[in-house]
Amino acid sequence: MKNYLGEFEELILTMVGICGEEAYGNAIVEEIKKQLDRDVSLSAVHITLYRLEDKGLVRSRYGGATATRGGRRKRLFQITNAGTSLIRDIQDQRQKLWKLFPGLEFRLH
To answer: How many CA atoms lie within 13 A of 23 on its CB side?
Structure first.
């Protein structure tokens, strides 16, 4: 069965891949703000991360506790092979459709 993602799920999955080893809630919120100038809530990011984990698209582990976090540990997320494969499929589908859009020049940045 194929996984289909909503726009926000796709965004969060992409950001997990971009953030790499430092993919956790606050880092994702900050990266979205930096890259897209878009404000998202931390709770929405966390809910989406858990949903992506349930779908097998990301996995999580706990990092070490730090004094700056009051002894709490970060929950770090990593994209799975299934998540990477799905992102590639989405990219391929989008590029195929963009090429068909009249008057829209296909361009790579």
So the answer is: 22
Cα 94 to the center of its chain, rounded Å: 17
The pTM is what? Answer: 0.86
CB contact at 8 A, 49 and 60? yes
Give the span between the Cα atoms of 82 and 25, in whole angstroms. 21
The domain spans of the chain are: 7-100
- Residue 95 tokens read as 């590029």
Closest CA to 15 of 3, 32, 34: 32
The CATH code for residues 7-100 is 1.10.10.10
pLDDT digits (tens, 9 = 90+) for 34-88: 999 999 999 999 999 999 999 999 999 998 767 676 678 889 999 999 999 999 9
And the tokens for 97? 């459709």
